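Sequence design from tokenized structure. All designs in this work follow the same two-part layout: the structure record, then the generated sequence. An example of the structure record is given first.
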């Protein structure tokens, strides 16, 4: 990484000097100088210090995209799948664990209180309007749990012009998706309602476990069919809003999800019948999130806004296994978790000390309650207070973003989480920024209180994880750079030092449990580039290089690829037709704490083709139809054997066809 970093730094420095000279001459008395021809600098729309990405899901109309796939293709983000379509998946940001990534739905945390992580396969892209990804510690925004970063998903807003969308697709392994959504107004009431259905047989073929051990290549084996992998999922959301007076808004939101699925378990043993899969286990899950919020603006000469909300979150998990095999006892588990919470935040703007300040003061509190048939009931209360500022000088050329958060979780020591961000913008097209902050995470209920089953148990003596995060980088944006348009380039270096890392490890030849494994360090380099060539060709690419080590043992942190790259090329006239090619490279993934066992590096190609029939006047369609996309996709074209986790296979080549209509 050293030589690459040096070369990249020299190249960027040369580019900055060249464009600085061009920009200065562009503003001189001789604008006809040929040196600036073909360059038109751009301007950043905002100047946050955090390295973040915003995804607008409507940009992927006419494609079959799952939400977890879309998030996993972003710079600094690795998606870890535990199977095929509809099976669990989780995110790692900058080498974090899934438990160290805070996931929110409309600002409300949805990480499981049991595991601490979020299964992204349970969320439907058709009900999500946009997603914001913050890379690096996000303690100010999310408090505990955001050591690696934050993902905030926004559901589709109510009100506005009447919009209706419907999407249906089907393909390999008996997989079907259906989404319907409507947003409109009824008198003074804004409303949005949506439904998403998913079903799959999940009976794909997969290669038995292939892994490199001490550099010895894996032995090819015959394919096995995935069994007991059928899944059905239903999701729906309701969003109601109404203006209260001239400057406030009252909003009610509810998101519910139910799933029923087979639980095949591991698929790793080629010499065992069915590859060691369980043909009988079954699971059912129910999740519900409800929130009532009130927002007010311009409450005084300094008070710019006030947000208050209360929410309730419910999770019900059921697992059944008749235990028909030898020496297998039947299992019937039912676990319920509820969270009641409050959040409030006020915003104040003022000018002082030669700067424009935007201050925010927030307060939150929540209480978790766990009940189960095989474990004692548990409760936990968390409270926090956060203060942050956004101070800018010289028309936003210099910006400081200091803040501090106080978090207290019942059963753990209180935490002070300071943070500081800085942004320098010497030109409208150049931004330099950096951040340093402290973050932490308390263990989940499973990590603490999972009942002792002989082979696995929780550990009530765990300490909370804590970390120091730092990053520095630069952004360049050009409206025109020679033949290229809408050019955006971001490069960043990051480092994370973690104390008391938590990992599930063997504590005896027959038992595993979570323990604090000591210190860990994650550092790396990330780069992203996007541009267009005319209105018909668009390219985006990103690369992440990662060095993740357990400092206590000297070995790697298992489950993190050492490098990852994503390239997307889209050809076509906007809102008329598109042809998309995607290339995804994932480096070797250590699968053991020693690093002696690893999953091999892989390259995967995907292709997508879509055409909007409503854009062709020759096709007779009702006038109310605004879009009518017909599309197809082919995933894993080269039929590569894929595993993100040692014991969970993924399908090979597969395809889907679909149709999306808007009116």
């Amino acid at each position: 990484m050293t030589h690459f970093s040096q070369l990249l730094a020299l190249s960027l420095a040369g580019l900055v000097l060249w464009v600085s000279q061009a920009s200065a001459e562009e503003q001189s008395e001789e604008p006809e100088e040929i040196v600036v021809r073909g360059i038109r600098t751009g301007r950043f729309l905002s100047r946050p210090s955090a390295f973040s990405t915003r995804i607008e899901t409507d940009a992927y109309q006419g494609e079959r995209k799952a939400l977890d796939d879309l998030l996993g293709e972003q710079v600094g983000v690795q998606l870890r799948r535990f199977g095929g379509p509809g099976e669990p998946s989780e995110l790692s940001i900058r080498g974090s664990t899934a438990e160290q990534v805070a996931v929110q739905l409309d600002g409300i945390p949805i990480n499981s209180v049991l595991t601490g992580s979020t299964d992204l396969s349970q969320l439907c892209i058709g009900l999500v309007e946009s997603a914001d990804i913050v890379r690096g510690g996000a303690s100010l925004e999310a408090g505990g749990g955001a050591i690696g970063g934050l993902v905030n998903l926004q559901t589709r807003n109510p009100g506005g012009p009447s919009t209706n969308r419907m999407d249906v697709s089907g393909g390999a392994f008996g997989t079907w998706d259906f989404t319907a959504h409507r947003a409109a107004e009824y008198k003074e009431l804004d409303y949005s309602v949506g439904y998403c259905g998913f079903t799959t047989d999940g009976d794909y073929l997969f290669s038995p476990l292939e892994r490199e051990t001490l550099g010895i290549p894996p032995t090819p084996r015959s394919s096995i069919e995935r069994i007991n992998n059928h899944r059905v999922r239903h999701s729906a959301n309701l969003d109601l809003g109404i203006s209260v007076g001239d400057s406030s808004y009252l909003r009610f939101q509810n998101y519910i999800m139910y799933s029923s699925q087979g639980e095949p378990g591991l698929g790793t043993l080629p010499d065992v019948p069915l590859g060691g899969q369980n043909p009988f286990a079954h699971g059912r899950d129910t999740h519900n999130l409800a929130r009532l919020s009130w927002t007010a603006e311009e409450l005084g000469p300094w008070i710019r806004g006030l947000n208050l909300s209360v929410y309730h979150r419910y999770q019900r998990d059921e697992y059944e296994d008749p235990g028909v095999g030898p020496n297998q006892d039947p299992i019937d588990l039912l676990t319920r978790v509820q969270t009641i919470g409050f959040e409030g935040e006020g915003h104040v703007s003022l000018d002082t000390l030669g700067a424009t300040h935007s201050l925010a003061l927030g307060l939150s509190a929540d209480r978790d309650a766990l009940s189960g048939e095989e474990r004692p009931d548990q409760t936990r209360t968390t409270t926090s207070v956060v203060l942050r500022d956004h101070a800018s000088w010289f028309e936003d050329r210099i910006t400081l973003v200091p803040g501090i958060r106080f978090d207290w979780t019942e059963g753990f020591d209180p935490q002070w989480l300071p943070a500081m961000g800085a942004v320098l913008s010497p030109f409208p097209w150049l931004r330099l920024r950096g951040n340093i902050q402290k973050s932490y995470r308390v263990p989940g209920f499973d990590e603490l209180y999972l009942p002792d089953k002989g082979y696995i148990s929780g550990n009530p003596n765990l300490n909370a994880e804590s970390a120091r995060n730092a990053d520095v980088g630069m952004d360049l944006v050009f409206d025109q750079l020679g033949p290229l348009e809408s050019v955006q380039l971001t490069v960043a270096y990051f480092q994370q030092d973690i104390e008391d890392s938590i990992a599930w490890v063997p504590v005896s030849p027959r038992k595993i449990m979570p323990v604090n494994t000591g210190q860990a360090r994650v550092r790396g380099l990330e780069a992203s580039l996007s541009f267009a060539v005319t209105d018909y060709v668009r390219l985006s690419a990103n690369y992440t290089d990662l060095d993740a080590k357990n400092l206590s043992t000297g070995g790697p942190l298992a489950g993190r690829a050492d490098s990852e790259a994503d390239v997307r090329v889209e050809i076509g006239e906007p809102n008329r037709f598109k042809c998309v090619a995607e290339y995804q490279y994932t480096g070797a993934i250590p699968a053991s704490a020693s690093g002696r066992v690893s999953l091999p590096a892989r390259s995967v190609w995907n292709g997508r083709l879509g055409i909007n029939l409503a854009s062709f006047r020759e096709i007779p369609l009702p006038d109310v139809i605004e879009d009518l996309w017909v599309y197809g996709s082919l995933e894993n074209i080269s039929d590569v054997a894929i595993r993100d986790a040692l014991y969970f296979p993924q399908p090979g080549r597969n395809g889907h066809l679909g149709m999306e209509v808007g009116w």
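Residues 128 and 388 are 28 Å apart (CA to CA). We note this feature because it recurs in several other targets discussed in the main text.
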